Amino acid sequence: MENQVISLPFFGVKTIGFETDREEQVSEFFDYLVKNGGPDPEDYEKFISIVNNLNPSEIIDFRDRLKRILKSDSLIGHGLIKPYGYGGDFELINKIYQFHVNEDIRIKNWDLFFQNQPGANAVRNRKDFFIKYCNKLVSRKQDAKILILGSGPATDVHEFLSRYPGNNNISFELVDYDQAAIDFSMKKNEKFNSRISYNRINALRFTSYTQYDLVWSAGMFDYFKDKHFSFLIRKYISFLSDGGEMVIGNFSTKNPSQRFMELIEWCLNLRTESDLFRLAVDAGIDKEMVSIDKEPLGINLFLKIRQK
Known about the structure:
The protein is α/β, with parallel strands linked by helices. It has 2 domains: 19-117, no CATH class; 119-306, 3-Layer(aba) Sandwich (Rossmann fold). The chain has helices at residues 19-36, 44-52, 56-69, 75-81, 90-97, 108-115, 118-140, 155-163, 179-188, 226-237, 258-263, 273-282, and strands at residues 145-149, 171-176, 196-200, 212-217, 240-251, 290-294, 300-306. Strands 3-2-1-4-5-7-6 form a 7-stranded mixed β-sheet, with helices on both faces. Helix 3 packs across helix 4 (75-81) and helix 7 (118-140) crosses helix 8 (155-163).
């Protein structure tokens, strides 16, 4: 039997002008989504409109509704339940990288919706950005040393080494405070572990006598407040070799998925290009050493600091 799409006004449009009418529209639409196994592509705009216009008092109830129907075997459920205790954990990031979709008919549409959101696409784009960056680096220096802060699943490292197996002299050092993430990374990169070292430690406390050609962090700094952000720049700039570079990813304030991510309690410190530039200068970095890049959607920004 084919699914029947219920046509409802977009959330936020006051057809009669009573709050109860709006609440009924949201409730009816949510019931439709449950029966449909999640939103179809033609429902995405309406669903996001609802999320973007939720009042603070409505968010908890809406979140609880999602929790009742979506468990950890779905992407949204995983985000809400937080099996590792924090938002945007290594397993969720790995599933985003892999465009994982649960084929269960009750979950599939929800996962497809999640994977097609701008925020998820930006996460995948930053992985591709990293792979291209590493390839460009090793074209200049065969024995490049790369330090990754907040390494998560290390899927990006695995894809780079799988795609370019001839780069036998490149080495990676990974830092993550989550032992589960380290264990996952070690298993995923088993055939490459001769070129990878792992450190279970908070990036604020990590130290090394190695000089790195690249210090990379795509998904850690936007969890930090400004003072910690600048502190880490000051700390890790000293780890760079001559001509080395630090690249720090941060979600932009222009992230269209902000409210949806906050709904599943994946909360980040969003920043502008000016914010990133300011934080580098606050850390004592010469303006001439600083530049800003971005992935194709412009949602993930990259602060780039090149050592003189």
